[in-house]
Amino acid sequence: MEPSDGTVGTAAGRRPTIMMIEDDQDLVAMCAAYLARTGFEFTHAGDSRSALRCLGEQHFELVVLDLGLPDGDGLDLLRTLRQRDMLPVIVVTGRGEETDRVVGLELGADDYLVKPFSLRELVARIRAVLRRSGADAASPPVIHLGGLVIDTGAHVIRAAGEQIELTPREYSLLEFLATTPGRVYSREQLLADVWESSVEWQAPATVDEHVYRIRRKLAGADVQAPRITTVRGFGYRLDT
Ligand code: CA
Fold first, then answer.
1. pTM of this prediction exceeds 0.70
2. Fewest CB atoms within 10 A around its CB: which of 24, 32, 213, 231?
């Protein structure tokens, strides 16, 4: 496949399809964009009934199931899924819903996430469960974006064939922004998603320092695009 700007290619062909059962539209939109950019196909259902219909019609590699659904108990849906096949399931619960999490695991969920979770965490869990279930067709993708080639498996970024020397955190920040170019993130969001931290633990200026250093390194490698743009009063975004 000829790489072009912003495309994701996998070495191993077909991308695993993830089904997300969740009624929070904003969360779904964020996950859809991120999973698409990190090498997955994505389908979504907003309630139990459409989820069951969808699951009967299409093959999925993994289900991300929010236990708080508008038309019933997510645990009932999990029970039904478990009776049908061994499709891997990651359950999502709200903060403090300890019982749901425990029951979910007892019912055979493969893993769980507690809201709010970071997108990086979601993808890490999905990959781990797919690896364990032997369904991991997804080699981590290589992202071609402007003058950059981002090898998310090797954690290496190249420009014109030359590796750009980045610290692990600089790499993670640039990779994260590159998975959703054009989207603006506040410093707080970046701390949550890239540092897996928060303003209580980490100064937002940490983000600024890393952005500054990445910009300098991209300039040093003569990369015109993509570039990290400051969005005044809000945060940062990657422009291609
Ligand atoms: Ca919900």
1. no
2. 231
Query: How far apart are the CA of 187 and the centre of ligand 1, in A?
Result: 26
The tens digit of pLDDT for each residue in 101-149 reads 888 888 889 999 999 999 999 999 999 998 887 765 555 678 888 999 9
89 and 157 share one domain: no
Structure tokens at 32: 């859809």
Convert the pLDDT of each residue in 142-180 to its tens digit: 888 899 999 887 889 999 889 999 999 999 999 999 988
The rounded Å distance from CA 219 to ligand 1 centre is 43
Domain boundary (133, 165, 188) is at 133
Same domain? 122 vs 168: no
C-alpha 34 to ligand 1 mean position (Å): 19
Environment class of 207 (CB within 10 Å of its CB; exposed 0-12, middle 13-18, buried 19+): buried
Residue 5 falls inside a structural domain: no
CA–centroid distance, residue 51 to ligand 1 (Å): 13
User: Encoding tokens for residue 47?
Assistant: 């309630």
Number of domains in the chain: 2
Residues 101, 146, single domain; the answer is no
Cross-strand pairs, 17: 41
Closest CA to 215 of 205, 227, 199: 227
